[in-house]
């Protein structure tokens, strides 16, 4: 395992100015300039340092439990008449892919001499992963979380508190991930010297999208090795991942970006339907603009006000998408799909009953699109199972009760 | 000559710039507020273009933005309101807002409307200097509009000089590292204000963020050409039943 550092010359990786095609950049107020500039100037050098890589790799192995298995899901494969592999990020310590990034960023924050860590969280997985590494390193941790999400992801709130983090409710706007991110950015403006902001996805100002993608790139690095071993070639026909901000998808796609024979399938949350007015399918509903300091696709009104999204899954309930994904959409490199709340729920129950794996609601959005791929029996599909479903039990229990009643 | 430059040519001290969100407290209050501000002694007016996600603002200005949006405010509506305002209002007017609504309006269309209605300057905190220079500077110059940049206590001397060189009009010195409306102690900022003064910038300096009354206004003016008041003014008018009278009283207290 090592962090991908050299990506020069790729059409799909970030350029030296911090852009992916027309998207990216750092549209930050001057108050954040010193922080973001400090990161920009140092992140590649720190990541390339063999001592840093060694520390990162060791923690991923011994603490997180990597490599995560690539599991050939037999009964799921039978059902969809293809060879379906699950990349088991749900088996990571803390239960999702988010920890790959927080391990990387906490080591980076230590190198920069930061004493205080802030984060935003939607589903609470990134909050838990941040609180975990802060406990591990003995650093103060403040997590901003929308008050709506605090209610729907209660188990993760309890975990963060037990880990010693302060969870601060975001009560503005839609009171979900977007607003938690606003509050975290405001905190950083107010605490510019001692604080590092661990962003949880491939969003925000450059260098965050690139930095987070590189920390998550371990996912596709492992997939290639594991597939080579299992099938004799590192190239599947399809790689699929759900997209909130896009970090598990970025990690799943990273080492396949320039392998054009591999189809990249990002799956967004359609909510109650793409055109229902309650959706988070940014590539379908968004236009170019600036959200959280990045030029990207975002859901907005004609006047440029950001639209409040909807998804049953807190981790996908975001009106933007990372600039890498905006570029993959615009360039046609990835084929964007979307799944409704109901499709995701059905897929969660299907995986549970066929494979004995209860997935996170987020990951279920990716699973839900297997039925729409028109697969051939020889096709090899890798789905990133980005997280486990423990945090979503309340939603799943409700669903079971509804079905029992009807 | 741009009205901002005219003002600084004529007046070097105790310049009072007041911020108010457009379309606030009520949609049609934009012009009455501006008229009262000029009548009672504000030297410059900063009009906020409300945005759903104002990252650099604290709760008071956030709430004023939300309310203005609920009132139906938009950039399009603002330009309708501003049509003909120069018949009655002579002080410089600056539009402050976030980049996204301006991008959707169209940057050139926006600047053209600013020039046509008689706006003098723009503040877009999330448009960084590098992007401005690369993409937009010729457009601002074409329409004779000043883009005002911020500096903060964490901005290095070298960067302050760079910003001063790219700036037009004045340099907006954020008093402390904070979002708007935070009560951070101004006393702790003396070293920073001294540093700014020693730099002898080409452009005048106005201090903003945390200026809320006579004491803080006087303190800021000791180091700069004047100051900008936002949050305190919003608080003074948010529940006002008599805008003109309340604005008069607010300004009198600050300038007393
Ligand atoms: C399990 C899981 N998957 C996916 C996501 C979505 O984030 P991203 O798109 O950055 O992978 C989240 C976010 O909270 C999550 O918890």
UniProtKB/TrEMBL annotation, chain A:
Superkingdom of origin: Bacteria
Keywords: Amino-acid biosynthesis, Aromatic amino acid biosynthesis, Lyase, Pyridoxal phosphate, Tryptophan biosynthesis
Needed cofactors: pyridoxal 5'-phosphate
Catalytic activity: (1S,2R)-1-C-(indol-3-yl)glycerol 3-phosphate + L-serine = D-glyceraldehyde 3-phosphate + L-tryptophan + H2O
Biological pathway: Amino-acid biosynthesis; L-tryptophan biosynthesis; L-tryptophan from chorismate: step 5/5
Complex and partners: Tetramer of two alpha and two beta chains.
Protein name: Tryptophan synthase beta chain
The organism of origin for this protein: Chitinophaga agrisoli
Automatic annotation (TrEMBL), chain B:
Its biological purpose: The alpha subunit is responsible for the aldol cleavage of indoleglycerol phosphate to indole and glyceraldehyde 3-phosphate.
Pathway: Amino-acid biosynthesis; L-tryptophan biosynthesis; L-tryptophan from chorismate: step 5/5
Catalysis: reaction(s): (1S,2R)-1-C-(indol-3-yl)glycerol 3-phosphate + L-serine = D-glyceraldehyde 3-phosphate + L-tryptophan + H2O
GO cellular component, one term: cytosol
Keywords on record: Amino-acid biosynthesis, Aromatic amino acid biosynthesis, Lyase, Tryptophan biosynthesis
Transmembrane segments annotated in the record for this chain: none
Protein name: Tryptophan synthase alpha chain
UniProt enzyme class: lyase
Species: Chitinophaga agrisoli
EC number per UniProt: 4.2.1.20
Active site residues per record: 46 (proton acceptor), 57 (proton acceptor)
A Pfam cross-reference name: Trp_syntA
Coiled coil: none
Family affiliation: Belongs to the TrpA family.
Gene3D superfamilies: Aldolase class I (3.20.20.70)
Any one GO molecular-function label of the UniProt entry: tryptophan synthase activity
Subunit structure: Tetramer of two alpha and two beta chains.
């Amino acid at each position: 395992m090592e962090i991908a550092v050299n990506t020069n010359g790729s059409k799909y990786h970030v350029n030296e100015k911090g852009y992916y095609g027309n998207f990216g950049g750092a549209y930050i107020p001057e108050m954040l300039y010193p922080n973001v500039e400090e990161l920009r100037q140092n992140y590649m050098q720190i990541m390339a340092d063999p001592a840093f890589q060694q520390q990162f790799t060791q923690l991923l192995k011994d603490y997180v439990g990597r490599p995560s298995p690539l599991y050939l899901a037999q009964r799921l494969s039978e059902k969809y008449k293809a060879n379906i592999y699950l990349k088991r990020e749900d088996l990571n310590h803390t239960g999702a892919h988010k920890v790959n990034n927080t391990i990387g960023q906490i080591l980076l924050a230590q190198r920069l001499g930061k004493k205080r860590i802030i984060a935003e969280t939607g589903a609470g997985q990134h909050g838990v992963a941040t609180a975990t590494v802060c406990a591990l390193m003995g650093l103060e941790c403040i997590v901003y979380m929308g008050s709506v999400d605090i209610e729907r992801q209660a188990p993760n709130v309890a975990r963060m508190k037990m880990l010693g983090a302060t969870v601060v409710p975001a009560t503005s706007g839609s009171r979900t991930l977007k607003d938690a991110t606003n509050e975290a950015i405001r905190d950083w403006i107010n605490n510019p010297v001692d604080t590092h902001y661990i962003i949880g996805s491939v969003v925000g100002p450059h260098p965050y999208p690139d930095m987070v993608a590189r920390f998550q790139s371990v996912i596709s690095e492992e997939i290639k090795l594991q597939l080579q071993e299992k099938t004799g070639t590192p190239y599947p026909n399809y790689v699929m991942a759900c997209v909130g901000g896009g970090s598990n998808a970025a990690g799943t796609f990273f080492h396949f970006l320039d392998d054009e024979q591999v189809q990249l399938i990002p799956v967004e949350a359609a909510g109650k339907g793409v055109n229902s007015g309650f959706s988070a399918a940014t590539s379908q509903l968004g236009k170019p603009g600036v959200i959280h300091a990045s030029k990207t696709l975002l859901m907005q009104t004609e006047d440029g006000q950001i639209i409040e999204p909807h998804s049953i899954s807190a981790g996908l309930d975001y009106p933007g998408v990372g600039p890498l994904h905006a570029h993959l959409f615009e360039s046609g490199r990835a084929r964007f799909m979307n799944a409704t709340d109901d499709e995701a729920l059905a897929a969660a129950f299907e995986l549970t009953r066929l494979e004995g794996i209860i997935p996170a609601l987020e990951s279920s959005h990716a699973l839900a699109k297997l039925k729409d791929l028109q697969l051939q029996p020889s096709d090899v599909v890798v789905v990133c199972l980005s997280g486990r479903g423990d945090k979503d039990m309340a939603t799943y229990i409700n669903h079971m009760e509804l079905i029992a009643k009807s | 000559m741009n009205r901002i430059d005219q003002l600084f040519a004529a007046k070097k001290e105790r310049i009072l710039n007041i911020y108010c969100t457009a379309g606030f407290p009520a949609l049609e209050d934009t012009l009455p507020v501006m008229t009262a501000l000029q009548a009672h002694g504000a030297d410059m007016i900063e009009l906020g273009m409300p945005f759903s996600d104002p990252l650099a603002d604290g709760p008071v200005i956030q709430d004023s933005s939300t309310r203005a949006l609920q009132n139906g405010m938009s950039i399009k509506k603002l330009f309708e309101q501003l049509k003909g305002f120069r018949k009655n209002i002579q002080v410089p007017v600056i539009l402050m807002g976030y980049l996204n609504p301006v991008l959707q309006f169209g940057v050139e269309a926006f600047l053209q409307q600013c020039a046509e209605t008689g706006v003098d300057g723009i503040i877009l905190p999330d448009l960084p200097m590098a992007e401005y220079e690369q993409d937009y500077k010729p457009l601002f110059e074409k329409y004779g509009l000043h883009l005002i940049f911020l500096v903060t206590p964490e901005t290095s001397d070298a960067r302050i000089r760079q910003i001063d060189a790219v700036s037009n009009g004045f340099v907006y010195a954020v008093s402390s590292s904070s979002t708007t409306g935070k009560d951070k102690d101004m006393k702790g900022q003396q070293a920073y204000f001294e540093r700014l003064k020693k730099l002898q910038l080409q452009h005048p300096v106005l201090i903003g963020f945390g200026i809320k009354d006579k004491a803080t206004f006087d303190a800021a003016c000791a180091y700069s050409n004047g100051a900008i008041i936002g949050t305190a003014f919003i608080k003074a008018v948010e529940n006002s039943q008599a805008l003109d009278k309340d604005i008069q009283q607010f300004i009198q207290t600050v300038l007393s």
